[in-house]
Design brief:
- With about 130 residues, the protein is an alpha+beta fold.
- Helix content is about 35%, strand content about 30%.
- The protein is built from three helices and five strands; from the N terminus they run βααββαββ.
- It has a five-stranded antiparallel beta sheet, covered by helices on one side.
- α1 runs antiparallel to α2.
- The two termini are about 20 Å apart.
C-alpha cells in the first residue's frame, strides 16, 4: 500500500547556477523531517548527482520535491530526460564518467525511476531513523 506524503515541498532548477540553492533546500527540508546529519549528507550527494545530470544532459531543468512518510524521507527529482538505467556496475577507476547513477544507487535505501508526463521522476528513499 502506498503511503501518502506527510509533508511535501518543491524547488525548481534550470541550470548549474541553481544547484547550490537546491542543495540548501534539500538539506533544510531533510533535517526538518528528521533525517540524521550523516544521512542528509548522503542524500545531498545523490541529489547533486541527479540534478547535475539534468543540467548537463537535458533541456529545461527540473524540480526537486522532498516529503516524508512514516518510515522514509523521499526526494523526487523530476526532469525532462529519459528514464535512467539503474543496476549498472561501478565504472573502472580510470573512467572519467559514469559513476553518478551507481553512486546514487549505493547510498540510498531505495531508488526508483518512472516515466511521467514530459520526462522522468527518480525517487530516492532513505530511512528516517
Amino acid at each position: 500500500m502506498a503511503h501518502r506524503p506527510v509533508v511535501s515541498d518543491t524547488i525548481p532548477y534550470a541550470d548549474a547556477a541553481d544547484l547550490a540553492a537546491v542543495r540548501a533546500f534539500v538539506r533544510a527540508r531533510a533535517l526538518s523531517l528528521g533525517l540524521s546529519d550523516e544521512r542528509v549528507e548522503l542524500l545531498l550527494l545523490a541529489v547533486n548527482e541527479l540534478t547535475t545530470n539534468t543540467v548537463q544532459h537535458t533541456d529545461g531543468g527540473g524540480h526537486v520535491r522532498v516529503w516524508a512518510d512514516t518510515e522514509h524521507l523521499v526526494c523526487d527529482v523530476i526532469d525532462g530526460g529519459p528514464v535512467p538505467v539503474f543496476g549498472r556496475s561501478m565504472p573502472s577507476a580510470d573512467a572519467t564518467r559514469g559513476r553518478g547513477l551507481a553512486i546514487v544507487e549505493r547510498i540510498c535505501d531505495k531508488v526508483s525511476a518512472i516515466p511521467v508526463p514530459d520526462g522522468t521522476m527518480v525517487s530516492l528513499r532513505l530511512r528516517r531513523r
